[in-house]
Specification:
By secondary structure, this protein is an all-alpha fold. The protein has one domain: Substrate Binding Domain Of Dnak, Chain:A, Domain 2 (Up-down Bundle), CATH 1.20.1270. It has five helices and two strands. Strands 1-2 form a two-stranded antiparallel sheet. β1 and β2 form a beta hairpin. α1 packs antiparallel against α2 and α2 packs antiparallel against α3. It is rod-shaped and about 85 Å long. The N and C termini lie far apart (151 Å).
């Protein structure tokens, strides 16, 4: 194994471990916050940061999963491309040496025209797969950036939900009600004047 291939394999393994680690972090944070989260009516206030962080972490987790799937697809396509080039190169060397040409897969003997057709077919197949490989590489790069941005926004939302939480429970200061003017009534007005009892004339019995 060449030194460049060893470096490439080590780099690929490091990227895969990092992708799994980021997905694990996003999933663990989502599970932890989901356990402590109390559902409530969503309003445009400080309490909005906590459900927003859950949404961002979930999106980051799924973006990370799609990134891992895309990397696996790239690895399979890359393997097919390399295999096609190796088979074409092996047949080309056999034709250049002027010896017997063997089919790469089964080992049967091929004539020169069949070998040239096979090489041309494998090179065209590799070219088509390389275009797919380029498209998957761009998709993987987009998912990589999307996952990291969503995760960063989720961290920011978690930070603000914890830092600003005391302000959400602080008592609101409302304006004191204006004192209503009351009219005082003097004791002379409240006290009614005494009513003098009239003397009743004695009853006269017949």
């Amino acid at each position: 194994m060449s030194e460049s291939l060893e470096v490439f394999i080590a780099s690929l393994e490091g990227d895969q471990k990092f992708d799994y680690f980021v997905c694990g972090v996003a999933g663990a944070l989502f599970a932890y916050i989901g356990q402590t989260y109390t559902p409530h009516k969503i309003e445009l206030s400080i309490s909005l940061f906590e459900p927003a962080s859950l949404i961002l972490l979930a999106l980051a987790f799924f973006a990370g999963l799609h990134r891992i799937q895309t990397v696996n697809v790239i690895s399979r396509i890359n393997h097919k491309v390399l295999r096609a080039h190796e088979e074409a190169a092996r047949l080309t060397e056999q034709m250049a040496s002027g010896g017997t040409i063997h089919y790469p897969m089964g080992g049967q003997i091929l004539d020169r025209s069949s070998a040239e057709a096979f090489v041309d077919k494998r090179l065209k197949s590799a070219l088509r797969m390389e275009s797919k490989l380029l498209a998957q590489g761009k998709r993987s790069e987009r998912l990589y950036k999307t996952r990291d941005r969503l995760l960063l926004c989720g961290f920011v939302a978690i930070f603000f939900s914890k830092v600003l939480q005391p302000y959400a429970s602080a008592p609101s200061f409302s304006k004191a009600p204006q004192a209503t003017e009351t009219r005082t009534v003097s004791e002379d007005q409240t006290k009614a004047p005494p009513v003098k009892a009239e003397k009743q004339s004695p009853l006269v019995h017949p």
